[in-house]
Amino acid sequence: MMWREFVNLNSYWQSVNYCEKLGIILGTTAEIRNNAVLLHKGKRMKVLEFQHVKPGKGGAFVRTKLKDIQTGKIIDETFNAGARIEIIRVEVKPMQYLYNDGDFFIFMDNKTYDQITVSESIINRRKDFLVAGMNVDLLFDSQEILDVRIPAHVVLQVTDTEPGFKGNTATGATKPATLETGFIIQVPLFVSSDDKIKIDTRTGQYIERAK
């Protein structure tokens, strides 16, 4: 083996050992998935969207939309197909949401009953759908909380809206309604205060009146 090859191989294994200590997996663009967390340019980035592209001319590439977990900023990033990437190993812990204290949200470990504080910058718009007692998943790496995963659908109570009228089902007609979390959503005209409605937390849209 040439000396240069030995040095390169030694550097590679040093990099592997360093990544393992940080909970990072060395992979390629073939392993990119939605919701995966990458270490990209020194920042923890969550994959929101990805698309493998094979143009008629030139090499294949992967087009992605990434979210900076710390700042919430979303960027478009393109990788050459087969390029090496660093995937952060994520641990998922079931938690129960308790309450919020200003800009912080308090969760409890369902097994140990330990309480964990999560900043609003991580919760982001999901705070609009959190109610006390809701079970969620907190995602951790070896150093910090990366994300909070809430159910795709939740049932929340309407606390304020214009009176609804039975049989008022005009196609497409909606009105604003305030939910128990303070979030304002567009609902059909027949929905009334105190009704419970099902909401898609991914889009923030009304699905149906809960039974």
UniProtKB/TrEMBL annotation:
Q: Which PROSITE patterns match?
A: EFP
**Domain Elongation factor P C-terminal: start-end pairs:** 154-209
* Span of the signal peptide: none
* Keywords on record: Cytoplasm, Elongation factor, Protein biosynthesis
CDD domains registered for this protein in UniProt: S1_EF-P_repeat_1, S1_EF-P_repeat_2
First-listed, main subcellular location of the protein, grouped into a coarse class: cytoplasm
Q: Can you list the GO cellular component terms from the UniProt entry?
A: cytosol
GO process annotations (BP): peptide biosynthetic process
- Report domain Translation elongation factor P/YeiP central positions: 92-146
Provide a Gene Ontology MF annotation, just one.
Answer: translation elongation factor activity
Give the pathway listed in the UniProt entry for this protein.
Protein biosynthesis; polypeptide chain elongation
User: Is the Cytoplasm keyword given for this protein?
Assistant: yes
Per UniProt, subcellular location reads as: Cytoplasm
Keyword Cytoplasm belongs to the record: yes
Database matches in NCBIfam families: efp, PRK00529.1
The record's comment on protein family reads: Belongs to the elongation factor P family.
Tell me what this protein is called.
Translation elongation factor P/YeiP central domain-containing protein
Organism (species):
marine metagenome
Show the taxonomic lineage.
unclassified sequences, metagenomes, ecological metagenomes
